[in-house]
Amino acid sequence: MTNPQRDTRVIATYNIKGGVGKTSAAVNLAYLAAAAGHQTLLWDLDPQAASTYLFRVRPKVKGGGRGLLRKRNSARDHIKATDHERLDLLPADFSYRHLDLALDQFKKPAARLRKVLAPLRADYDYIFLDCPPSISLVSEAVFEASDALLVPVIPATLSSRAYEQLEELTRAGKVGRRSGTATFAFFSMADVSRPLHLQVMERLRGIDQLTVLGVAIPTADEVELMGEERNPVNVFAPASAAAVAYVALWTEIERRLRPSAPPAGS
Amino acid sequence: MSARGELFTYADAAAQVRAALPPSYGVTRAPDGVIDVRDERQKLVCRIRVRVLAGGSQWLTLTPLRGYERKCERIRCWLERGGLRPSWQWKQARVPMVVDEPANVAAARVLQRLLEIQQANLPGVLVGEDPEFLHDLRVANRRARSVVRQMRAAFLPEPAARIVAELRWLGAQTGATRDLEVLLVTLDPATAELAPVRLLLERRLARARAEMTVTLRSPRAAQLDRTLTRLAQDAAQRAPAAALPVAELAAARIRRLHRSIVRAGGAISAPMEPQAYHALRKQGKELRYLLELFGLALFDNTAVSELITALKELQDVLGRHQDCAVHATTLRQLAPELAAQAGGAAALLATGAVIARLETQQAEAREHFESSFNVFASARQRKLVARVFD
Ligand SMILES: Nc1ncnc2c1ncn2[C@@H]1O[C@H](COP(=O)(O)OP(=O)(O)O)[C@@H](O)[C@H]1O
Ligand SMILES: [Mg+2]
User: Fold this and answer.
1) For chain A, which terminus, N or C, has the lower number of CB atoms within 10 Å?
2) ipTM field
3) Across the interface, do A81 and B41 touch by the CB < 8 Å criterion?
4) What is the CATH code of the structural domain delimited by A9-257?
């Protein structure tokens, strides 16, 4: 079923909370993966359609989420090329807000997304899932489908609690059930001039069961500007601190996902 | 969509595209002669590559981004509405005509159209990126010669003879390149032993193409279009049978050619000389062009289509036979040069296998000949010819 030449990695940006930088990470990292020469797909699972908007694509999937889940190979027919080479998008659709109900109609709902993605593995080296902020059947299916969960954490007490919830979830065995699903947290909208941020970052890095990536994405105007530019930061501000941070973050993620692979750019 | 594109005569492709599209589309120039077309959300939906900038004409290739094929079709429609000519128009040789139109007028119109197609493909041939330009040029060239020869009663003999001579000259300049291009496509790139063969052939092709390009840029070639147009006008005037209705002349030629092929093919007793097949194929081509250019325009379409189908079948068999013979000969000629190369021994062996395969294919074509010829020469087909072209 899968192309032996491709060793596809599925990466989901996930957090129970909204507004923490999931979409910004998915869009920028997917762009960097593609720019480095990998065939890359981003599936915008969020009915809010933020990444679909950032890629200028109409948030519409004929037949809706239900159709995507039901028909074999149907996902392929809805894929749109973005303006960036090697980077494709499976757009969001308003119907995704009922995706958990649609999933629930299958015998093994949690395995469904993995099934839908299976035929796409032949075409892509990386598949990014940009998730809606929730904990539901959808997130369960996302966990099952992913090789890595990428969890943006804003280093402020309030939202680190959100991460603690995820921690509990992990311990409850829901997340890492399928062996090999790694969970990586990274700091998002970090402001190192604020003592509170530094404090929270230090505390979270100290938790043994938690993999916190070394690179933090700083709070930066350029990330906010993506909404106006409708492009990844590396396209319109490649020298900015945010762009550099995303490059470093991607390098770190790729090294963890493919320990033996040569570093990007070589 | 593997769009082939449009050939047209505008100075600035981007400006033309912008003018042809509704204002909701964004048109910007990207590097490397590419034009980006964006939709109302400023999403890139289609890339247009400008291929040829020679002789004042440009060849545009539309490539939709994945998922935007329908939008790209709409863009294509706008461009056509804006006056850009789609590629099929440069393949479509048929021109409208009426049954009792004077033969010289109708035949001259067909000839003019073919010359136009030939000329339109010339810049593409000179660029040399896409073999289809050369293919289309050669088809137009052969068709034009055929029209002059077959409809000769409608043309004055002296200018007609000069047209054929000029056309044959142009055709001859392009034959070697075309043959090598086709042969190279038939060689399996996965067979490593054939690499030296490919190399030699590619070198030959480069040489052939260089020679062809030089002649096609020569003063004679530059004059060709004007010369041919003038000759075509001369030839169409005051010919002996000029006033004959075109349908009458075309019908007489078709009947005659059909009879002649039936007779020649029937006289064939296996094993036959390769030349006999070749001669038969050439006659078949003449008949096919007559049927396509005049038959379909003037007579019962269903019947003519049926005739063309049977003829096509026969021509395919004969064409395969001929191609195999030409390729085998070319490959045999390579042997001495090949033996001197590194890896020559292995390459010779592999070439031997290719030649053997070609000979098998040729033998197969010869075996198929009889059945496809029998369909072509069947009583049904002959009656059809008699009825339609009475
Ligand atoms: N590093 C950052 N610096 C500044 N603003 C950011 C940063 N990351 C995200 N944002 C802004 O925060 C908002 C939410 O980010 P988004 O990536 O859409 O989060 P989510 O997908 O988790 O809801 C957006 O307006 C985005 O521009
Ligand atoms: Mg989001």
Assistant:
1) C
2) 0.87
3) no
4) 3.40.50.300
